[in-house]
Amino acid sequence: MANLLSLIKLRKHAVDEKQKVLAELYRQIEIIEQSKTTLIERLRRERETLDKSGMLEMYAYFGRFSQNIQRMLERLNAEKNKLEVRIQIAQDDVREAFANVKRIEIVQKERERVEKKEADDKETREMDDIGIDGYRRKEEV
Question: pLDDT-derived band of residue 52, with 50, 70 and 90 as boundaries?
Answer without folding.
Answer: confident
